Amino acid sequence: MAYDMDGVRAAYPALADGHAYLDGAAGTQVPQTVIDAIADAYRLGIGNVGGAFAASRRSDGIVAECRRAVADLVGGEPEGVVLGPSMTTLTYRLASALSAQWGPGDEIVVSRLDHDANVRPWVQAAQRAGATVRWAEVDAATGELPVEQYDDLLGARTRFVAVTAASNIIGTRPDVAAIAARAHAVGALTYVDGVHATPHGPIDLRGLGADFYATSAYKWSGPHIGTVVADPVALEGLRPDKLTPAPDEVPGRFETGTLPFADLAGVTAAVEHLAGLDASASGSRRSRLLASMAAVEAYEDSLFDVLLGGLDGMAHVTTYGKAARRTATAYFTVVGHTPRAVAAHLADRRVNVWNGTSYAWELAGVLGLRESGGAVRAGLVHYNNRSDVDRLLEGVAELAGGSTRR
Question: In this predicted model, what pLDDT tens digit does every residue of 91-126 receive, in sequence order?
C-alpha cells in the first residue's frame, strides 16, 4: 500500500505542537478517535458491571468489546483476555498464580534480553517457591538471543520460560517460536512479553507459541491499560488470590477491583485505528489488522534505515544492537556527553527521546551501560516521519567534538 503519512499524523492532535515524538517506545500519543471514545463513555453514562440498569449494561458491552478487540489484535480468544492497569501488575499477578505450582527442584528460564517486568516477577516468585532460575544470555556484540542455548537450559524439571518478543531498547526480535517449541517439548509454559513488539508489526500468538502474551495499549496509541492474552484453558487451571465475592470465572478472576471502563472503550478505539492504517484492507477486523500492521512494519523499517544509517555514519556516536530482526528502535551513546545531556540537548530542539536503562536492567548490564546511565533511545512508531528523523540526526550531529553534563 502507499502509506498515507499525512493522514496518519492528522489523526493525532498532540503532533500539532511541532515536537518530534521519538519517545514512542516509552508510550505513544493517541488519535482523536481514542480521545472521543473515552469522552463518549463518560458522556453517555457508565456504571459498574452486572447491574440491571442501562449505564451498567453499557459497561458490560465496553468490557466485552475490549476483549474482542485485543483478541483480534494478537490472534487470541476474547475469553482469554485479562485486563488490568499495566503489564507489570498483571505479570506479578500471574507469577503468583503460576508459581503456586512450582517447588524445590523445579526450574524456570528467563532471559537477559528482557525488560525487568518479564524478569523480576518470575525470579522473585521462583525464590519464594524454592525453584531454580536459569538464564538465557545475550550476545553483547550483536544483541542476539541465541536459540541454541535453550537446548542446554531446558530439561525435565523446566516448568516455565519467559522471553520477550522484542527488546525495548535495542529492538532485537528473537526467534520466539523456536524457543517456545523447545519449551513445549519438555512440558513447560511460555510467557511472552509483547509490549514492545506489538506496535511494530502483525502479531500471532499461536504462531509464536505463546501460552501467555502480554501487551500494553499505551504503546500502540491507546490509554494506559495492560493485558495478558492466554488460552482460556490455561487460565482455568490457575487460582489467583481474590476477594471471596469477586467473579470466579475466567478471565474475571484475575481482574482485581473495578475496571476503568472508559479507558477500555479507548482500547477498542485504538485497535480500530490500527486496523484502518491500510485503507485498502478489507474483511474482518483481524484481517485488516494483519494487513495494516504489515504496512506499518514495512514503513517503519524503511524509515529506520535512514535513522540508523545516519547515526552509524557519525564518528562520535556508538549504536547498540545489530540483530538481523529488530524493531525500529535505536539505542546509542555520544562521545563526551551523558545520555541525559544528549536528551536535554534534543529536547531544546523539540525532539523527544528517552535516556537511561528503560528498565532493561539485565541487558544494560550486558552492554556495559548500566553504571554509566544507560544510553539514549529513539524509537519510531507509525506516526513518525522523515522530518522527525532528520531533526534527530541534525541535533546529534551538533554534539560532535563537544562535552556537556547535565
Answer: 999 999 999 999 999 999 999 999 999 999 999 999
Q: Are 178 and 151 in contact (CB under 8 A)?
A: no
As given in the structure block, the three cell numbers for residue 266 are: 479507548
Left (φ > 0), alpha (ψ -120 to 50) or beta: where does 41 sit? alpha
Sorted by where each starts, the structural domains of the chain and their CATH numbers stand as 5-30+285-397 (3.90.1150.10), 34-274 (3.40.640.10)
Strands 158-164 and 81-84: unpaired
Burial of 348 (0-12, 13-18, 19+ CB in 10 A): exposed
pLDDT digits (tens, 9 = 90+) for 371-380: 999 999 999 9
192 with 227: CB under 8 angstroms?
no
Nearest to 358 by CA among 86, 169, 138: 169
- How many Cα atoms within 13 Å fall on the side-chain side of residue 359? 13
Nearest to 323 by CA among 138, 181, 194: 138
Q: Can you tell me whether residue 124 is helix, strand or coil? A: helix
pTM over 0.90: yes
